[in-house]
Write a structure and sequence with these properties.
Blueprint (H helix, E strand, L loop, with lengths): L5 H6 L1 H5 L1 H24 L1 E2 H15 L5 H20 L6 E2 L4 H13 L14 H5 L13 H7 L2 H11 L4 H10 L1
Antiparallel strand pairs: 1-2
Helix pairs in contact: 3-4, 4-5
């Protein structure tokens, strides 16, 4: 603040007023971000939940406010619940939507920018992305066999049964009459 001009000090004056809250949030972010990173990276397993609960018990000793203590209790309760629903000790649940977001991001990238096209049969590409090996990106799929057993006609039938007609096709049909 001392380095700021008088005008800037007026603009940022609310920081002094809310300094205790800002400090509390900074402390919370300091312990919650590593927890989120661990679970996002490794998934939720009984071992990881146990380790994180133990770490949160240590952090509880330095909790600065009642709000932080309540948050710690709720996070620990959540981890206990996750731990309890895991069927076996070696099971791990994915705890990140990154895979889904990546699949839809790639799908949207390949879609036509014309919004009137709507969802086309290219939506079938979504399932291919989930069949790719994460490091090599090679498909765990016999492409030759898939091409030999599935024709454009199969895709057209699937599209007719599962997708609504898009605006572009409706317009073309109407103008042909």
């Amino acid at each position: 603040m001392p380095r700021l001009t008088q005008e800037e000090q007026k603009v940022f004056g609310f920081i002094r007023t809310h300094q205790p809250l800002i400090a509390e949030l900074a402390h919370i972010i300091g312990w919650i971000n590593p927890l989120l990173k661990t679970i996002k990276t490794n998934g939720a397993s009984q071992d990881i939940c146990t380790e994180e609960i133990a770490r949160l018990n240590e952090i509880e000793q330095s909790a600065q406010t009642e709000r932080e203590k309540k948050l710690l209790a709720r996070v620990k309760s959540y981890l206990e619940n996750v731990k309890a629903i895991l069927p076996a000790k070696q099971d791990t649940y994915h705890a990140s939507s990154d895979i889904i977001e990546s699949c839809f991001g790639l799908f949207k990238y390949r879609q036509s920018p014309n919004k009137h096209n709507g969802v086309t049969s290219s939506v079938l590409l979504l399932s291919l992305r989930t069949r790719a090996h994460p490091e090599s990106l090679l498909l765990d799929l016999d492409v030759k066999q898939a091409f030999e057993t599935h024709t454009i006609g199969h895709i057209a039938k699937w599209q007719q049964a599962n997708l609504s007609e898009n605006q572009v096709r409706k317009r073309v049909k109407t103008l042909k009459k």
